[in-house]
Input
Amino acid sequence: MSRYRLGLLQCDEVPDDLRHRFDDYPDMFAGVFAKAGVDIEWRNYNLLDGVFPKSINEVNGFITTGARAGVYDKLPWYLELRKLIRAIDGAKIPLVGICFGHQAIADTLGGEVINSPKGWGIGVYENETKSATSWMFPLKSSFNVPVCHQDQVVTLPRGSQLLASNPHCENFVVQYSKSSLGVQGHPEFETDFLDTLIERRREFLPNDTAAKAHESLKTPHDNVTIIRWIANFLRIGTY
Output
């Protein structure tokens, strides 16, 4: 049985001044997949540097990072990512979008993404499972996961299935097709990194939002469970 090859579509980088304290995003993802006991071969594609797959068949599945950019910015690398998402989804290759990637899939397949008037979702948020599917095991009726976003998917593409929500973000986990999944949260984030992001955004956050975000970091997260769900969706274990 060959080893599963997972392509990481990197849409952002950890700021230079934080590199002495935290891993860049490829290592964050590799670390949490390892904690979840998921053994894979990684292929990293740094889209910011113009590094895209030469063929969508180079790997068995894809996962994205988040990004500081918004889908409405229409940056050149994002326009290329849209083409890639169409090709991946059309070929029914498993694709999981994390945060910005979730929004990118929605935007590409006909949904709507906006800078939400609800403001920042930041901290560890509890989400309610609205609809369970076969790959969501071990099943949890609710789960906690780190979040850091202003943009939200507000209209789903036709044929999408809503799987999990929270009061701040209705479309938190969405299955867009048999092979494409979006997760608004960041199961790759540990609380110390998220704590740093809260502080870096403090000048933009209302005082009560920042206080609640810091308080939420005391809540245990379910990152490993969410990564196992993602691994199941990607069909890791069948190679």
Remarks:
- The chain has a mean pLDDT of 96.
- Residues 124 and 141 are 17 Å apart (CA to CA).
- The two ends are 5 Å apart (CA to CA).
